[in-house]
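Message: Just now I want nothing more than another pair of eyes on a protein record. I am handing you a single protein, as its sequence and its fold in token form. As I understand it, each token names a local backbone shape. Take your time, and here it is.
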Amino acid sequence: MIDFHIHSIFSDGELIPAEVIRRAEAIGYKALAITDHADQSNIDMIVPRIVKVFSEIQPYTSIVLLPGIEITHVPPDTIPDLAKEARRLGAKIIVVHGETIAEPVKKGTNKMALQSDIDILAHPGLIADDEVKEAQKRGIYLEITARKGHSLTNGHVAMLALKYSAKLVINTDSHSPGDFISKDFAINILKGAGLGENDTIEVFENMEELIRRKIS
């Protein structure tokens, strides 16, 4: 399993980064990113700490560790500058908290995120056709999620991604130990979103591709 969307105690997760890594290692994860929630108040605190712990633990694990951040509930117009700041601080994976129907995310977040230097638009809810086209054009990955609530629109996201050849990834949005999943379970989630066997294979190829981009 590969997972680019995990939270630690640096936002609303239950585990310290080292335990996130160890638990993922124990169930056979190949790569992960810790992407804690950030806004203007804490981005300069979180990213350097994740970069530090990952750099110190990486020699002792076979898991590829990618420091990241999830830009969350900020005014849409501030997303581009926050993404630039995250890159400057060392984030390899930049996620934006998309317009999930489970939370009152400000309208315009998806659109502005897709105009920014980010990697993944997480749980983008009832994303519009033109936004999916923009994701495809810019090579930004759209997330199929295992997280309850956010997963309610997985089918919509998958349908439009297939229609416009946008790239998909699957993440857990883990906040606690019980949120980690196996690859087999991830495959079932993708099938539940309406993806066929070849489409499901392509999702995992997309995730391998993103790893290569970030470690090259």
Observations:
- Residues 2-215 form a domain with the TIM Barrel fold (CATH 3.20.20.140).
